[in-house]
From TrEMBL:
NCBIfam families: quinone_pig3. It comes from Pontixanthobacter gangjinensis. GO terms for molecular function: NADPH binding; oxidoreductase activity, acting on NAD(P)H. This is Zinc-binding dehydrogenase. CDD domains: p53_inducible_oxidoreductase. The lineage of its organism: Bacteria, Pseudomonadati, Pseudomonadota, Alphaproteobacteria, Sphingomonadales. The keyword Oxidoreductase applies. The keyword Lipid biosynthesis does not apply.
Length: 328
């Protein structure tokens, strides 16, 4: 099979086609003939050399796929072969075939294209776990999301609105703010033109928000905490602005704030299986009925993965970038 990997870390130009053996599924795995694969920020960070694959994972990037099951391990039900699925994987998505744990797969109905399906697992799993499981989001609460037009940001808007949240996002220009509101955000703040802390105070009449989904960290953390209402929750899922933050512990005590965060790729298979099962019962029905669809930005050919990464790094995309690997 053909896969797109790299020999040494670097810029988008380091990708090259590699010819690799088609992997063989173990007991609880399926082999998926990949139609589309999602492109995510962790892929970019891995390509740069800062996010190596966890032990046992494929060194080929790609954390989400969609396609058809063509083979399966012994403990997988026999009629799995031929099913259209999307899956969260620990690597290997940028290839014509990819292994997935059957417990990490979700069915793709006829009304959902495989390109859209490939754009769902990474953001859907991440947002659901962090906003609703770790952040305890409840109907009627207000969520502040940074990077409102990113893949994570657009999914946070859509899931948040589907489950009764008011959603405030920050974006880097007025056009992106308009796009975020068109996607469903209640408010969009151009953080380059206004202080988002003051804007949040105005929007919430001084009360603050109940949750912040933070992908920036660094010096944003202090400002995020100023946006939180009493008993607010701050959830960190990336550190694009730096790993170190200065905290006012008295502020955390007085407002009874909760600070949490998570990563997903290296979590145990059992955890991901439980998360997938919960999503299949709660959020996936909204996907199957068409109420939730990923916000799609652009589809690149697998051979053009370098251009896809450059497009993501430029920061102009709105929603998800995917690779077309095979026939979908």
């Amino acid at each position: 099979m053909t896969a797109m990997g790299f020999d040494v870390p670097g810029g988008p130009e380091v990708f090259r086609p590699q010819t690799l053996p088609v992997p063989i599924p173990s007991e609880n795995e399926v082999l998926v003939k990949v139609a589309f694969a999602g492109v995510n920020r962790p892929d970019v960070i891995q390509r740069m050399g800062h996010y190596p694959a966890p032990p046992g994972a494929s060194p080929i990037p790609g954390l989400e796929i969609a396609g058809e099951i063509v083979a399966s391990g012994e403990s997988v039900i026999p009629d799995a072969t031929g099913q259209r699925v999307c899956a969260l994987v620990t690597g290997g998505g940028y290839a014509e075939y990819c292994l997935a744990k059957i417990e990490h797969c979700l069915p793709v109905s006829d009304g959902l294209s495989l390109a859209e399906a490939a754009a769902l697992p990474e953001t859907l799993f991440t947002v659901w776990h962090n906003v609703f499981e770790r952040g305890w989001a409840g109907e009627g609460e207000t969520l502040l999301v940074h990077g409102g037009t990113s893949g994570i940001g657009t999914m946070a808007i859509k899931l948040g609105k589907a489950f009764g949240l008011d959603v405030i996002v920050t974006c880097g220009n007025d056009a992106k703010c308009a796009a975020a509101k068109a996607i469903g955000a209640d408010h969009a703040i151009n953080y380059k033109a206004a202080d988002f802390v003051e804007e949040v105070k105005t929007i919430t009449a001084g009360k603050g928000v109940q949750l912040v989904l933070d992908m920036v960290s660094g010096d944003y953390v202090t400002r995020n905490l100023a946006c939180l209402a009493e008993d607010g929750r701050h959830i960190t899922i990336a550190v694009l602005g730096g790993m170190q933050a200065e905290l006012n512990m008295a502020q955390i005590m007085v407002k009874r704030l909760t600070l949490t965060g998570s990563t997903l790729r290296a979590r145990p298979d059992e955890f991901k299986a439980l998360l997938c099962d919960e999503i299949s019962r709660t959020a996936w029905p909204l996907v199957e009925t068409g109420k939730i669809r990923p916000e799609m930005d652009q589809v690149f050919a697998l051979a053009d993965v370098g251009a896809a990464h450059a497009h993501m790094e430029a920061g102009d995309h709105i929603g998800k970038i995917v690779l077309e690997v095979g026939q979908g």
